[in-house]
Amino acid sequence: MASGGGVEEVTNKQVLFKEYVSGFPKESDMHVSTSGTIKLKVPEGSNAILVKNLYLSCDPYMRPRMKQPTPGNQSYVDSFKPGSPIVGLGVAKVLDSGHPDFKKGDLIWGMTGWEEYSLITTTQGLFKIHHTDVPLSYYTGLLGMPGMTAYIGFYEICSPKKGEHVFISAASGAVGQLVGQFAKLSGCHVVGSAGSKEKVNLLKNKFGFDEAFNYKEEPDLAAALKRYFPEGIDIYFDNVGGKMLDAVLLNMRVHGRIAECGMISQHNLEQPEGVYNLMSVVWKQIRMEGFLVSEHFHLYPKFLEFVLPHIKEGKITYVEDIAEGLESAPAALIGLYTGRNVGKQVVVVARE
User: Fold this and answer.
1) Which residues contact 225 (CB under 8 A, 6 or more apart)?
2) Angle, in degrees to the nearest 10, between helices 221-228 and 242-251
3) Alpha-carbon Rg of the chain, whole angstroms?
4) Separation in Å, CA 352 to CA 28, 55, 91, 94, 100
5) Handedness of CA 194, 200, 205, 209 (dihedral sign)
6) SS3 of the chain
7) Would you state the pLDDT for residue 223?
8) 35-94, pLDDT tens digit by residue?
9) Would the pTM count as exceeding 0.85?
10) In the chain, which stretches have pLDDT less than 70?
């Protein structure tokens, strides 16, 4: 720790992105560096904020950010820069601020670097944390982007009605576990799919799903869905795409709704799989809608108003998979794409 001109300078451990990835990402596509340093002061005249990162979020959308940007694979998020830190959502504490809206000691969540300390120059997407009587890590999940995604996708896109039949894929993940609980609060019949016995048990015993199944044990997905939804599916919350989406289309009811939230089954394929049963959309008059949660953040206060009382009354539970320390971050992120995580994947950089 050096101090030059009265400004403390400290080492800043970082997770650097090495090179663009094609196919399945590996831990070695990232590198933990301890050679960087940072001054714990915002540069004179800048309206940036300097933060200490506490919790980092691992999310499926980060995989497309590892691809080389080409006109053919445009994503809604920019690619990571080789040689620079990975960037993602996180919870942090403000150490110094040149911005009128933030002061030293504030807790925030939003986009930050995968490093111990970050100088954040773009502050418009940051949210101040006012409710600290819940675990701070919840702001990477339940009270952050995944929570909002579940809320918007289910309530705003799917317009659920009591008694409807709801199916959720990747149902034990950061978003799926909440969609299922929201659906139960709305009086729906809820079935989820996941990729292990442990996750299936979690869905039924902890999150209150009516039924759940392990898709890896079902050679015929369309037949499995027919078994769980003999009268068809009203609402499908899609986190996986691919073969599951195709099977769901055959099992939807007339006037069913599909919220397209993500397609994790396609992220690591060079050639995406086709969907063959789209004619169902026509003759069953299905509404299928994609959405980006970032377009709906004006509803964040409304979401908090809805969800906080449910948390405090114990009506909503949330399961996190915690990885300790920045050095564990690459393995935690890669684990998302093999389904290694159980619940929301969080990396703890520091608890204070």
Assistant:
1) 167, 233, 247, 248, 250, 251
2) 50
3) 21
4) 29, 10, 11, 12, 24
5) positive
6) CEEECCEEEEECCEEEECCCCCCCCCHHHEEEECCCEEECCCCCCCCCEEEEEEEEECCHHHCHHHCCCCHHHCCCCCCCCCCCECEEEEEEEEEEECCCCCCCCCEEEEEEECECEEEECCCCCCEECCCCCCCHHHHHCCCCHHHHHHHHHHHHHCCCCCCCEEEECCCCCCCHHHHHHHHHHCCCEEEEEECCHHHHHHHHHCCCCCEEEEHHHCCCHHHHHHHHCCCCEEEEEECCCHHHHHHHHHHEEEEEEEEECCCHHHCCCCCCCCCCCCHHHHHCCCEEEECCHHHHHHHHHHHHHHHHHHHHCCCCCCCEEEEECHHHHHHHHHHHHHCCCCCEEEEECCCC
7) 97
8) 999 999 999 889 999 999 999 999 888 988 988 887 766 666 788 999 999 999 999 999
9) yes
10) 1-5, 72-76, 264-270
The token duo for 180 is: 């299922």
Q: Which amino acid is at 235?
A: I
